[in-house]
Write a structure and sequence with these properties.
- The chain has helices spanning about 5-10, 85, 105-115, 140-145, 165-170, 180-190, and strands at about 20-25, 65-70, 90-95, 120-125, 145-150, 160-165, 200-205, 210-215, 220-230, 230-235.
- By secondary structure, it is α+β, with helices and mostly antiparallel strands.
């Protein structure tokens, strides 16, 4: 599990109105084993003539996933939802450091419908496998993000990034944690620098930058951006 999952899970444990159901990948998908048999033969030659009894040549071509906080043994048993009936029961989806190739094109299109038609929320967190670095450019998920992923952005990484709330960020209650402005300013100023940033090509029209980060030279980059998308809302947190 990522640090983001750890602290998010801890933060909502005492909230009876929030249930965070999670899928965590603990092992990547491995390539199928290539048997050296006859041309076009995909199974072990030792089973030739026995109808491939007990042989599952695709069993190693799947990632290893664990489920947390499910309501029963059936919820998300097949992995990430593949139908509206499965996905639309949730109110929001958070992707934390997972590459675009994990999802099928149909699942990505379903996520887009989840936001635009069902009115769900969608948040992508920064990381080595997120945004452009995760291969999301040109995907249905990228089309609903509030930032552009079309072109690579040249930023010297890693660095030390200091977070600051923008004027729009100060006006949004979900970006603040303290009761007063002074308390919130103290919280933000005392935060340690971030070491991970996914630089983006730009901000889409209608999107709001709620937080920025700056490097030691004072150059500023978007850190938290949100926008309306259809009936729902999407957000991008480019730091990790």
């Amino acid at each position: 599990p990522t640090w983001e999952f750890k602290f998010l899970n801890r933060a909502i444990q005492d909230d009876p109105q929030v249930r965070m159901v999670s899928l965590i990948r603990i092992a990547n998908r491995e390539p199928k084993f290539q048997f050296l048999g006859r041309p076009g033969e995909s199974s072990n030659p030792l089973f030739r003539g026995f109808g491939n009894q007990g042989e599952d040549t695709g069993s190693y071509d799947k990632p290893v996933i664990i489920r947390l906080n499910t309501k029963d043994e059936f919820e998300l048993r097949g992995g990430f939802p593949k139908t509206p009936e499965e996905l639309f029961q949730y109110q929001a989806v958070i992707l934390g450091d997972i590459e675009a190739g994990f999802f099928t094109h149909e699942q990505q299109a379903l996520l887009q419908r989840f936001v635009s038609e069902r009115g769900g929320g969608f948040l992508m967190l920064g990381g080595a496998e997120s945004f452009r670095q995760g291969g999301y450019a040109g995907t249905p998920i990228a089309s609903m993000l509030p930032v552009y992923l079309d072109r690579p952005t040249d930023v010297a990484l890693p660095s030390m990034w200091k977070l600051t709330l923008t004027r729009d960020g100060w006006l949004q209650p979900w970006t603040r944690l303290r009761e007063t402005e002074a308390g919130e300013k103290t919280r933000v100023d005392s935060m340690p620098p971030f070491e991970v940033l996914n630089p983006v090509d730009g901000i889409k029209p209608g999107a709001s930058v709620l937080a920025t980060v700056s490097d030691p030279t004072g150059k500023t980059y978007p850190a938290l951006v949100a926008q309306r998308f259809g009936l729902g809302r999407t957000a991008a947190l480019m730091i990790g």
